[in-house]
Task: inverse folding
């Protein structure tokens, strides 16, 4: 006989649903979150704004009531230090590092003691778009079959949450794993984009591609919050100089 | 970059739904089974006999079509060598050994090579009854919170199936990418130092300290050779712009 409850604290874990279409799925996500003790639900551009009434949130109306709505993905993850996307694509050439859920769980559990971690789920039909993925440090994939890889949204959330609480060991926080907030990464990206545009590096025709490429590259740097602050300060000064001279 | 598909063979794994009420849940169970490669669905005394039409079985109509119906639980598990029940009860005095899902997964995976293993899920409202549990060798529990332990049926199935295939995931990593050469890191550092000096970020008095601090920071970025080349290109352009304007 044993007693089995999760001891992993998911206070810092943020579930972000990007452009979800079906309110019933959002409710079912809230239920899974409540089951595993995750409270922070963020919804970016829900197709149906009346999702808070979803009956599928059995026993989890508080999660749904407190869900935060955002107009942009950048805003939804701005205060998070690690942003991870989910994908059902396991083989195509992705522009991001791809980890198994198990491996991702180990990393995320460790990072949760240092700050908020966001896990992103794309819309039911198409998942996360390439542009949305650029906000992520890396991606995880649940090991579904190649022939039928696309999961129900709330089931995917449930499986990911289970992996987060599965191992009952609470890992200790390591100082060097304290990454910059996504909002600062985005500020860094925007400053850099501005500098590149002004200095003629970016061609207007390819601006969008550069934008996405750059956002990914900045996330790959995995800056610590201390270093991130310094990099931001340096870039601000350089941009100020360029702008003043124009 | 890695490729993540399950290799655990679930041919011998039987999902048994006992007295399920909602056909949509049955369809959603079929979808989860198809996602993880489990084919054998057995349904005992479904409340709604028209469950085979459930639209929720997205991409899994074959699992639903081949589902077997039984009048009694005893018949449904008759050809199985191990019968495991699921429960959301984690503390009450049960008459059965209770294992964590993780522990259960280890045992079930081992037993799958020897014969069929049945995993039983009770009805949505009450779970498995005491009588139904008597058909089980032991029980497993998904580590949900005590305060909200009852999961959506299909989500519970998805989480259990994930645990079955989890550790057998193949994760093939691309050979570790080479980092940039030290010479390029130094070129990057020098360009940056120049930009910072010209833009007034560096005070001459503290130039040497900045120099050292920056060199360390650039190394901490651990740039890949591909990314490093792009960062160098961007920085060159920005520096060129600043210099031209002076």
Result:
């Amino acid at each position: 006989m044993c007693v089995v409850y999760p001891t992993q604290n998911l206070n810092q874990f943020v579930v972000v649903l990007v452009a979800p279409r079906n309110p019933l799925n959002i409710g079912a996500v809230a239920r899974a979150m409540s089951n595993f003790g995750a409270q922070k639900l963020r919804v970016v551009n829900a197709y149906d704004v009346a999702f808070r009434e979803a009956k599928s949130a059995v026993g989890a109306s508080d999660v749904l009531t407190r869900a935060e709505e955002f107009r942009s993905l950048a805003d939804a993850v701005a205060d998070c230090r690690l942003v991870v996307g989910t994908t059902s694509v396991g083989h195509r050439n992705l522009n991001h590092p791809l980890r198994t859920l198990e491996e991702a769980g180990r990393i995320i559990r460790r990072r949760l003691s240092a700050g908020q971690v966001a896990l992103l789920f794309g819309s039911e039909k198409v998942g996360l778009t390439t542009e949305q993925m650029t906000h992520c440090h890396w991606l995880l994939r649940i090991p579904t079959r190649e022939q039928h890889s696309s999961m129900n949204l709330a089931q995917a959330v449930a499986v990911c949450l289970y992996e987060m609480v599965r191992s009952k060991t609470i890992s200790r926080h390591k100082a060097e794993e304290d990454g910059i907030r996504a909002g600062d990464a985005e500020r860094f990206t925007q400053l850099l984009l501005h500098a590149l545009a002004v200095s003629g590096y970016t061609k207007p025709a390819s601006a969008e591609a550069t934008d996405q490429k750059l956002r990914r590259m900045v996330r790959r740097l995995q800056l610590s919050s201390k270093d991130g602050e310094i990099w931001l300060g340096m870039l601000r000064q350089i941009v100020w100089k360029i702008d003043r001279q124009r």
